[in-house]
Specification:
Chain A contains 14 helices and two strands. Chain A is mainly alpha-helical. Classes of the chains: A mainly alpha, B mainly alpha. Chain B: It is a multi-pass membrane protein.
């Protein structure tokens, strides 16, 4: 009797505490998000860890030798073919992100500052082509730039050229054009969002104090929209470095990129560890390039003010 | 001088905006144009109008199989990713807890990672686990890349959602489930349908992940990829592509209308009680 009488108050207390814990915000929030989180852990984080592990192993025909080696990285970084593909991929993704941001900024500015009541209609108009299949958009560039394609036959019909040009398709320029078109909307949205946050009274103040339209833009609007420019550049740069479809369809021999080599290691060449090392190398280098881009844009932003 | 001033003040922007929209739409418009052209190669001048390439489509068994596979994968991926998206979006907008931003970042990560790397890493794990590649593994992959989009649509529908409505319902004696079904769900239903449509469209058009994770079954983009090798099959591919374009366009327009309605609904309710 006495034992239960003595035992029950702390018991009741722990239960009350446990209930309080279960009803606390952090626990409820975490419990609610846990299925999605676990899904991302199993299908994203675990696979990436497995790829990193593979990059340190070697493969003998069908068996994987799990002793630690850096040989794959030596091949990935020093073999001319992979080094060239990596450089080309980085060059293409850097050029594409620069072009998309430069082309997208005026549009985002136009919608944000002069869009009036039709802002959301403009945004919708610009994003809708990008919900169509990526494969089909790349294919349409092949149709346009091809030897017997739209551009060649159109130019010949107009009498501008006499015979079809082969310079249009199957090179890195074709890859750059196609990717710039494919990623345009992804650059517009972040820039638009950051321009929307620019305090309009600051722009007016700059004009009242004697700055012309160009100066007030360069000293007020542009630096304040730098966060949008940064995310636009990154959101284009990181995925394009690993693009597979565009180089395969319009790149030809001179437009092959690192993703095509990675795919080959998991397909025909069947050397998973080398493919894994190429993937990890690409990710690390593109992360470094992204970090450098962020630092450069921030430095420019400070200079402008 | 005045012309230069007008130029600097942004007088050229409307013209630029017009040209930009043309640049965005022009490439896509060539697909439908050449899909109704009689010539087998897409070049100018056009040779004549025909629906011949469309009439051939339903007579291709491989194409019908691919369409059926795409439908199964799309519906499953849309439902699964929307369910996982609802849980996550609700947790992110309703609760505050440590690590919230990091978790959100992790879930959104597939959006900015190179798709090839996401695909081959999943491929490696699935092969290691002894899963045989099939439409099921494609669904698993599509769910991962659809969740970020689903989250974006749903958070914009859940944000600004007035919590006092749910509290009022609980105070008036509704159970937690009853409150969800009778108060929360009707307010967020448009956002949920919008998320389903967006995810279905992404899955329908997605190529890379399906390409790596499927076994012998082809989805529509994989079927198209296979046909691209044959120059003679191009008009048929253009016709099929046009149908896919129209489907994506319709689905996304409906999704956008619903998403806006959802955002307006939650915000209006909030404004009424604030």
């Amino acid at each position: 009797m006495t034992a239960t009488a003595e035992g029950s108050p702390p018991l009741r207390m722990t239960r009350a505490r446990r209930n309080a814990l279960l009803q606390s915000e952090p626990v409820q929030g975490l419990a609610l998000i846990s299925p999605t989180l676990v899904y991302a852990l199993i299908l994203l984080v675990l696979p990436i860890l497995v790829v990193i592990a593979h990059s340190f192993w070697t493969q003998h025909y069908l068996t994987i030798d799990r002793s630690f080696t850096l040989e794959n990285y030596r091949i990935a970084l020093t073999e001319p073919i992979y080094r060239d593909l990596l450089w080309r991929s980085l060059y293409i993704s850097l050029t594409v992100s620069l072009l998309t941001v430069l082309l997208a900024y005026p549009i985002a500015y136009f919608i944000s500052f002069h869009g009036g009541r039709h802002k959301s209609l403009w945004l919708f108009l610009i994003t809708i082509p990008f919900w169509t299949s990526y494969l089909l958009r790349v294919m349409s560039w092949k149709v346009i730039l091809g030897y017997n394609g739209v551009l060649n036959s159109g130019l010949m019909g107009l009498g501008i050229i006499d015979e079809p040009s082969t310079a249009l398709l199957y090179n890195s320029s074709a890859v750059i054009i196609t990717l710039t078109h494919a990623w345009a909307a992804f650059a517009i949205l972040p820039i638009f969002v950051s321009l929307e946050k620019v305090d309009r009274t600051l722009v007016e103040a700059a004009k009242d104090l004697g700055d012309g339209p160009l100066r007030s833009f360069l000293r007020v609007t542009l630096p304040l929209s730098a966060p949008g420019v940064i995310s636009a550049a990154l959101i284009v740069m990181i995925p394009t470095v690993g693009d597979y479809v565009t180089p395969k369809l319009v790149g030809g021999k001179d437009g092959v990129m690192i993703a095509n080599a990675i795919q080959a290691q998991f397909g025909k060449a069947s050397n998973w560890p080398l493919g894994a090392a190429l993937s990890v190398t690409t990710m690390v280098i593109v992360t470094l390039m992204a970090g450098a881009t962020v630092l450069i844009i921030r430095a420019l932003q400070r200079l402008a003010r | 001088m005045t012309a230069a001033r007008r130029f600097l003040a942004g007088g050229w922007l409307p013209a630029y905006a017009f040209l930009y929209v043309v640049f965005l739409y022009l490439p896509v418009i060539f697909l439908p144009i050449f899909s109704i052209n009689t010539a087998a190669t897409p070049k100018f001048p056009l040779t004549g109008f025909t629906l011949h390439w469309y009439e051939d489509l339903p007579r291709t068994p491989a194409l019908l199989d691919a369409a059926w596979n795409s439908l199964i994968v799309g519906v499953s991926a849309a439902i699964l990713s929307t369910v996982l998206g609802i849980l996550a979006a609700r947790s992110i907008t309703r609760y505050r807890y440590p690590g919230r931003r990091a978790i959100n970042g992790l879930i959104m990560a597939p959006l900015v990672l190179p798709e090839v790397i996401v695909a081959i890493s999943m491929l490696l794990v699935m092969l290691q686990l002894g899963l045989s590649l099939s439409l099921f593994t494609v669904v698993l992959g599509h769910v991962l890349v659809c969740i970020p989009y689903s989250m974006t649509v749903l958070t914009s529908g859940f944000e600004g959602f007035d919590r006092s409505l749910e509290e009022a319902s609980a105070d008036l004696g509704e159970s937690a489930f009853g409150t969800f079904r009778r108060v929360t769900l009707p307010m967020v239903a448009p956002a949920i349908i919008s998320s389903l449509l967006v995810c279905f469209t992404i899955s329908l058009d997605e190529f890379i992940i399906a390409f790596f994770l499927t076994g012998t079954d082809a989805t529509l983009p994989i079927y198209i990829w296979g046909q691209l090798r044959f120059a003679a099959k191009l008009p048929g591919v253009l016709a099929l592509g046009t149908l896919l374009l129209v489907a994506s366009f319709l689905l996304m327009t409906i999704a956008e209308i619903l998403r806006r309605r959802a955002a307006r609904r939650t915000q209006n309710e909030g404004g009424l009680y604030a």
